Structure formats: C-alpha cells, structure tokens
Amino acid sequence: QVQLVESGGGLVQAGGSLRLSCAGSRNIFNAYATGWYRQAPGNQRELVAQITNNGSTNYADSVKGRFTISRDNAKNTVYLQMNSLKPEDTAVYYCNNARYPWYWGQGTQVAVSS
Length: 114
Fold this sequence. Notes:
This protein is mainly β. The chain contains no helices and 10 strands. The chain has strands at about 5, 10-15, 20-25, 35-40, 45-50, 55-60, 65-70, 75-80, 90-95, 110-114. β5 and β6 form a beta hairpin. It is globular.
C-alpha cells in the first residue's frame, strides 16, 4: 500500500500564490503518472494538472499559465505551484498516482478570497 499526504493549502487573497506538496511513502512518482485534482463543494472532482513518468505535463485549460506541476524524485514529492489565484480555484486539492488509482489522501484546502 502507499500513502500520499497533501499539504500547503491555506487562505490567500486573489492574485496570491501557494505551493502544494504531495509526499509519497514510497518512490512511485517517477514510474507512474501523478495528478493534482480538486473538488469544490457541489462539484465533481476534476483533474487540474498531471505529470507523467517521463516528466511530461498537462494542465486543465482553467489553470494553464498559472499553475505548474513538478516532481522531486529524491524527496518522493510532487508539487503544484499555484500563481495568480482566483476565487474559483477554491477547493480541496488531492494528488493521485496511477499505480494506486483507488487511493485518495485527505486533501488540502485552498481558499481564495476576492
């Protein structure tokens, strides 16, 4: 089994920045794709950004140019740098790895005030 622990969320004003971290209990990020997802109240969980095993990245249109996903294999951690935050980015953010697609951590809350 694996554990993924998300951290780094908080309350920020519109236009601000946050960096989220997803720490894995084992080294799986360089072998399988990892995605950051978010879920706002009343909405379905959506994919925000993904980094594949070879380092390719993909982003939802709503965050392109503002969010950056990256990976530190030595620390078994995937990051999500979020800049120019908007109130509509408010959600609980989760990371998920393709090796264990059924596993979801507790998430980290991001709240952006206008």
